[in-house]
Amino acid sequence: MARLERDKVSGQMTTGHEWNGIKELNTPVPSILWAFLITATIFSVSWTVLMPSWPGINGYFRGLLGVDQRVAVTQSVEEAAVERESWTSRIDSEDFATIQADPDLMAIVRETGAALFGDNCAACHGTNARGNPGYPNLVAAPVMWGDDPETVAETIRVGINGTSPEARYAQMLAFGRDQMLARADIDAVVSYVETLSQPELAAGMDAGMLAAGASIFADNCAGCHGEDARGMTDTGAPNLTDHYWTYGGDRATIRHSVYYGRAGTMPSWEGRLSPTHIKLLTLYVLDLRANEQ
Predict the structure, then answer these.
(1) 3-class SS of residue 259
(2) Which amino acids are annotated as binding site, given as ranges?
(3) 16: which DSSP letter?
(4) What does the radius of gyration of the chain's CA atoms come to, in whole angstroms?
(5) CATH class in words for 183-260
(6) Residue 13, phi then psi, degrees to nearest 5
(7) Residues 6+ apart with CB under 8 A from 257
(8) What does the record give as cofactor (predicted)?
(9) Rounded to a whole number, what is the distance in angstroms from the first to the last CA of the chain?
(10) Binding-site annotation: residue ranges for heme c
(11) CA distance 280 to 179
(12) Which of these, 218, 191, 216, lies nearest to 205 by C-alpha position?
């Protein structure tokens, strides 16, 4: 028979159970815990009765209050659409210059455009739009196809080297891989291209090699990049005289570009984004460029 006794230290009665000299106290559950459990039980039962809860065969218990989150979300979306209509109609109907001159509309463009860019463009061009290896800097570098609003919007719409039948196409030939130029000629033109953006390098190079490189450039590269190597928007060829490089401006990367060629791809956003969103992205990118200048 279990023997009950009072613990000398705590003053609590024991349960009479003992294991290896350790006696179990009969400590009562704290009142605050009982209060918490009772309150939680009342709340749980009340919530189950008042709010949508238990599933059934043909539906679910909708609760005495009749709360329906689907209705609430639908109503919220409709209200947001009505609110947006006040400015989306203006974005759709007004030309780029008019929108850019309106501070209130441009505030909306900066807020909405940043979200659109982050969701659709930042993975390639970076969250700050300053580019990643293989993807151009949209803030400061010259825009290869042109930076007027209509051209930028068209580029976003149709993409580059993509699947759209209207896509812009631009490809740099693989002069080495396809044996269009000899190794020595590639080395010469690479040296010449290096000096276009870094003229100070010319002092340490062979003058005859640079002259040969200039001649090779004129015969093979100027048709796309221009005689002055400043790029051509008709061909989407980049400016080679500045410090903005899509793939990299070090000698090894330039040589890789000349040897293997380049053909960057940008998806067509038509069908993925609405015309309003494409226009917003265009305005957003142009605003980034304007603030950089």
Answers:
(1) helix
(2) 121, 124-125, 172, 221, 224-225, 266
(3) E
(4) 35
(5) mainly alpha
(6) -75, 150
(7) 172, 247
(8) heme c
(9) 93
(10) 121, 124-125, 172, 221, 224-225, 266
(11) 45
(12) 191
Q: Burial code of 53-92, b = ≥16 C-beta within 10 A, e = fewer?
A: eeeeeeeeeebeeeeeeeeeeeeeeeeeeeeeeebbeebe
**24 token code pair:** 């179990």
Q: Position 233: which residue type?
A: T
What would the two tokens of residue 207 be?
Answer: 């003058």
In the numeric block, the tokens 């304007």 are attached to 290
Whole-structure pTM value: 0.73
Here the tokens at position 53 are 């809860």
Look at 70-74, 181-185, 233-237 and tell me which has the smallest mean pLDDT: 70-74
Residues 159 and 170 sit within 8 Å (Cβ to Cβ): no
What are the backbone dihedrals phi and psi of residue 241, each rounded to the nearest 5 degrees, phi first?
-100, -10
CATH of domain 71-166+266-292: 1.10.760.10
- 138: its two tokens: 């949209």
Tell me the two tokens of residue 225.
């990049």
Contact call for residues 236 and 143 (beta carbons, < 8 A)? no
DSSP structure class, residue 14: E
Q: CB of 105 within 8 A of CB of 276?
A: no
- Domain residue ranges of the chain, discontinuous segments joined by +: 71-166+266-292, 183-260
In the three-class reduction of DSSP (H, G, I as helix; E, B as strand; rest coil), residue 242 is classed as coil
Write out pLDDT tens, residues 187-199: 999 999 999 999 9
Range of lowest pLDDT (83-92, 245-254, 268-277): 83-92
Environment class of 180 (CB within 10 Å of its CB; exposed 0-12, middle 13-18, buried 19+): middle
Going by DSSP bridges, is the β-strand pair 22-25/14-19 parallel, antiparallel, or unpaired?
antiparallel
CA distance 252 to 256: 6
pLDDT per residue over 120-159, tens digit each? 999 999 999 999 999 999 999 999 999 999 999 999 999 9
Q: Which two tokens stand for residue 8?
A: 């000398």
